[in-house]
Specification:
By secondary structure, the protein is α+β, with helices and mostly antiparallel strands. Helices cover 19% and strands 41% of the residues. It contains five helices and 18 strands. The longest helix has 14 residues, at 72-85.
Length: 263
């Protein structure tokens, strides 16, 4: 049987920007092992699988190394596919996930994710991470991600290493700093752990569930503009709403096709 699949650049103004995700819209879930194998075969940071749940949808996300609890860019890509490729007409998408019920809305020409906010809890860098980073930190924060706050945007941009071979890393490592540019509040990069099968994630929506609350408090703002300054680059608008974070961005379809295999 052939299954339709789309590849979408999320948090992107044009193709070849943002973070590419594969999206497969199904009638029912596939076996876990099959979904994991498809994610390995796609070799993207995330593959999203979505299927009907009454009038709503179920969604699961797989990296090449493992299933994850929450993924922003692949959720944005999924909403883009449902609305722009498949003609789904509802004004709000309701997605049932391992992180609870998520919502996506259209806001002008952007898509808005309604995600849980993470708590910026003080932490410490594992010795192996501190040694690999080899930069002074302003803060170290942890909740879902391990986040190191650096002194400057330049330090974040010029970091040349990764943490995917460090066993002490259970979650992805965020490097972040305030931006000195007037149109951007903060920047980040996200480096994945050894279980993920990815070295650096180009644009990570779920990381902003921690980044936005942290920088919102530091900058005394409830609406912030963020850039993830990987090689592909991506921009997000973040809005704090109590225990939720709204993340806005755009998406572009790169590929439409089918996948087919035999057991």
């Amino acid at each position: 049987m052939a299954f339709p699949m789309y590849q979408v650049d999320a948090f992107a103004e044009a193709v070849f920007q943002g973070n590419p995700a594969a999206v497969m819209v199904l009638n029912a879930p596939l076996d876990d092992a099959v979904m994991q194998q498809l994610a390995i075969e796609n070799n993207l940071s995330e593959t999203a699988f979505v299927w009907p749940h009454g009038d709503d949808w179920n969604i699961r996300w797989f990296m090449p190394g493992q299933e994850v609890d929450l993924c922003g860019h692949a959720t944005l890509a999924t909403a883009h596919v449902l609305w722009n490729e498949l003609g789904y007409s509802a004004e709000v998408l309701h997605l049932h996930s391992r992180s609870g019920l998520l919502e996506v809305r259209r806001v002008g020409d952007q898509l808005e994710l309604d995600f849980p906010a993470y708590s910026p809890n003080p932490s410490q860098l594992p010795a192996q991470v501190e040694q690999r980073l080899a930069l002074p930190t302003v803060d170290v924060i942890e909740d879902g991600f391990l986040m190191a706050v650096l002194n400057s945007e330049q330090q974040v941009a010029e970091f040349e290493h990764h943490f995917a071979d460090i066993d002490a890393v259970d979650n992805a490592v965020i490097l972040t700093a305030a931006s000195q540019r007037p149109d951007v509040d903060f920047v980040s990069r996200v480096f994945c752990g050894p279980k993920d099968g990815v070295i650096e994630d180009p644009v990570t929506g779920s990381a902003h569930c921690l980044l936005a609350p942290y920088w919102g408090e530091k900058l005394n703002k409830t609406t912030l503009v963020a850039e993830q300054i990987s090689k592909r680059q991506g921009r997000l608008e973040c809005e704090l709403k109590g225990d939720r974070v709204r993340l806005r961005g755009r998406a572009k379809t790169y590929l439409r096709g089918f996948v087919e295999w035999t057991s």
